[in-house]
From TrEMBL:
<keyword id="KW-0378">Hydrolase</keyword>
<comment type="similarity">
    <text>Belongs to the RNase H family.</text>
</comment>
<dbReference type="GO" id="GO:0043137">
    <property type="term" value="P:DNA replication, removal of RNA primer"/>
</dbReference>
<dbReference type="InterPro" id="IPR002156">
    <property type="entry name" value="RNaseH_domain"/>
</dbReference>
<dbReference type="GO" id="GO:0004523">
    <property type="term" value="F:RNA-DNA hybrid ribonuclease activity"/>
</dbReference>
<dbReference type="InterPro" id="IPR036397">
    <property type="entry name" value="RNaseH_sf"/>
</dbReference>
<dbReference type="GO" id="GO:0003676">
    <property type="term" value="F:nucleic acid binding"/>
</dbReference>
<dbReference type="Pfam" id="PF00075">
    <property type="entry name" value="RNase_H"/>
</dbReference>
<keyword id="KW-0479">Metal-binding</keyword>
<dbReference type="InterPro" id="IPR012337">
    <property type="entry name" value="RNaseH-like_sf"/>
</dbReference>
<dbReference type="InterPro" id="IPR050092">
    <property type="entry name" value="RNase_H"/>
</dbReference>
<dbReference type="GO" id="GO:0003964">
    <property type="term" value="F:RNA-directed DNA polymerase activity"/>
</dbReference>
<keyword id="KW-0548">Nucleotidyltransferase</keyword>
<keyword id="KW-0255">Endonuclease</keyword>
<keyword id="KW-0540">Nuclease</keyword>
<feature type="domain" description="RNase H type-1">
    <location>
        <begin position="251"/>
        <end position="374"/>
    </location>
</feature>
<keyword id="KW-0808">Transferase</keyword>
Length: 374
């Protein structure tokens, strides 16, 4: 490999106003020093003030806003929704590129980028310069770029904290200049501002690991009778579900388990009712979680419970096809509940138990599913 020394420069990142007499050599060639460099489309200045980056973003946004303004002159079917979709898919991604580190920039620099979206809002809504920015944001349901930048910064620091032990255990030094905050200091303040808990942080799971050595569970996403959930009434769905349960999983040979996970408030709740031939489990996850996570969590809870019982095969009835496919697959996953479910299923199968997942329609009157929903 040959290095092109004419294109190779070095840069010193410092807040000091005193000149730094630093020289770098590559062989006998002295490298030139630069005050700013562009790396992967990001302009890094020596003081990391992000002024050059903000100017670049402002130029890109102005150019693309010009194309959006042309759409407003088209007389055929140019609606506000179309303009919003164009902005979100074509303009905002370019403006938000590398917006996470910009949370450390000054308010003046962030406002320079915010003006790009403000001009877009006036194009979409037709508002005058005297129209309040907040009113236009509420009308088209578009958040401020500063708010989205803070959310992106929190997501980035969470990925760093979960990726390894270095950032999780790293203690930033005391900052001497209060006017220049580091990325770690800013995100720490954002945790407090948004009241985000940072305890019990789980590590990110590697996605490249295939666990084909584990025995997957059997599953079925269809009922014994040909029915369509969208077009059939609840009575027909209930009859098809009961026929499927009785035909494929007779109570004399299978322990019936009904699960349900839903996004039902900020508090974590879990309950289980045990009956003669089956039991139902439900779990309500936090407001910041998804229904998919709730379904995976309650399957995890069900497998933990049935693992304490001996001798019987286990049929788990669930109304989420996505959760069934996840826990029955061997493909990589970052969901801790899903991976734990696969390992528990493998353990139960190795102990001579049969595990089967059966999709059942929700809210159609099946007793076990109804109790889990309740």
């Amino acid at each position: 490999m040959t290095v092109n020394t004419s294109k190779t420069v070095f840069q010193v990142l410092t807040l000091s106003t005193k000149p730094k007499m630093i020289q770098f050599f590559y062989g006998d060639f002295q490298l030139q020093r630069t005050e700013e460099v562009t790396y992967l489309g990001i302009v890094l200045d020596s003081r990391l003030s992000w002024k050059k980056q903000a100017s670049r973003v402002q130029g890109v946004g102005k150019t693309r806003n010009g194309l959006l303004k042309r759409l407003t002159d088209v007389k055929w079917y140019t609606t506000q929704d179309l303009l919003c979709t164009t902005y979100k898919s074509y303009i905002r991604p370019a403006v938000e590129y590398n917006s996470e580190p910009l949370v450390t920039a000054s308010e003046a620099v962030r406002n320079k980028i915010e003006t790009v979206q403000n001009n877009t809002l006036r194009i979409i809504t037709g508002g005058a310069f005297s129209t309040p920015i907040l009113a236009m944001q509420l009308q088209v349901n578009i958040e401020p770029l500063t708010f989205r930048s803070k959310m992106g910064a929190l997501k980035l620091i969470e990925r760093l904290m979960r990726h390894g032990d270095f950032w999780r255990n790293y203690n930033p030094v005391e900052r001497r200049l209060k006017s220049h905050s580091t990325f770690l200091h800013v995100t720490k303040e954002l945790y407090t501002d948004f009241d985000i808990p940072s305890s019990n942080r789980q590590s990110l799971l590697e996605t490249g690991e295939f666990i084909r050595h584990l025995s997957p569970a059997c599953y079925n996403l269809y009922l014994a009778l040909p029915v369509n959930k969208i077009s059939c009434i609840n009575t027909e769905l209930r009859r098809a579900a009961l026929a499927t349960i009785g035909e494929r999983f007779p109570e004399s040979h299978w322990l019936h388990v009904y699960t349900d996970g839903s996004d039902a408030g900020a508090n974590h709740k879990a309950g289980a009712g045990v009956y003669s031939s089956y039991f139902s489990l439900s779990r309500a996850v936090g407001a910041n979680c998804t229904n998919y996570n709730g379904e995976a969590a309650v399957v995890h809870m069900a497998l933990t419970e049935v693992g304490k019982r001996e001798g019987r095969n286990i049929a788990i009835f669930i109304d989420s096809q996505a959760a069934i496919l996840a826990v029955s697959s061997v493909l990589p996953s970052r969901n801790g509940f899903v991976l734990d479910c696969r390992r528990m299923i493998n353990s139960l199968i190795n102990n001579g138990r049969n595990i089967a997942f059966q999709w059942v329609p929700s809210h159609c009157g099946v007793k076990g599913n109804k109790l889990a929903d309740a």
